[in-house]
Amino acid sequence: MFVYPSAIDLSTAHLRHLSRELAPRRREIGSRWRRLTPGRQALLALAHLRCGDTYAQLAAGFGIGIATVYRYVSEAIEVLAVLAPTLDEVMVTARSRAYVILDGTVLPIDRIAADRPYYSSKKRHHGMNVQVPTDPFGRLLWASPALPGATHGLTAAREHGIIDALVDADLKCWADKAYQGAAGNVRVPFKGRRLKRWQRRHNTTHAKILCVGEQAMATLKCWRLLRKLRCSTNRITAVVKAVLTLHLAAASG
User: Fold this and answer.
1) What gap in Å lies between CA 71 and CA 77, rounded to an integer?
2) HSE (CB half, 13 Å, CA atoms) of 206?
3) Distance between alpha carbon 157 and the CA centroid of its chain, in Å?
4) Three-class SS of residue 118?
């Protein structure tokens, strides 16, 4: 296998943040010696999350075994996932905003046709449903745990407690037609073909607001691992939370 220099389109804030979290983790478990320093382990994990590099590629690039790569990446993801904010914490922050935008995405996964619970009829591929609230500027606030791709957006939002949290916080929310009937404070566009002129104008304005929320989806998809997840579905929630933690840490720092 050939090895060549490469680059990761991330700031050093991501690397510093993950390195700082990995060092106390090693002291906590009493790890005496590792093939890689915390900084190199952080770089390894970022290459996997951001670039989607396989374990075999990383093993060749860092000069370690594939099993070691798996342990290092899993440890980094576990450390980051624990630091992800909860929905209640996000709602406290969101109260200072005029409103939030709620949307969902289906992250593609590597599954066969027999795995029907993971098949999204809307997206026409197997995946995991993740709900993403953003602020009025399209900045990512939170990402929900992943559910099978066949789960409807409104069902997922209710199961995660997002709708109830919005009601309790008395926070206005803009969403698409999939969230019809969610709650009184969740604004959705009018449905139907024969709409009045003022309803069409409302839908146009509504669509412009929702377009801003698509920036959060683009933020998630910038992490190439999320474009095609080949790991166990049980690990996807931790991966999403790890990405969320890195994004929020870099944005605040």
Assistant:
1) 10
2) 18
3) 15
4) helix
Residue 226 falls within a domain, yes or no? no
Say whether both 43 and 153 belong to one domain: no
Whether residue 107 is found in the same domain as residue 133: yes
The string of pLDDT tens digits covering residues 175-202 is 999 999 887 889 999 988 899 999 999 9
Mean predicted confidence (pLDDT) in 234-250: 94
The helix (run of H) or strand (run of E) holding residue 26 is helix 12-29
Q: Are residues 214 and 149 in the same domain?
A: yes
Check: pTM over 0.85? Answer yes or no: yes
What is the number of residues in the chain? 253
Q: pLDDT digit string (tens) for 21-56?
A: 999 999 888 887 888 999 999 999 999 999 999 999
Quote the tokens at residue 230.
């080949």
**What is the token pair recorded at 222?**
């910038």
Closest by Cα among 117, 122, 83, 86 to 106 = 122
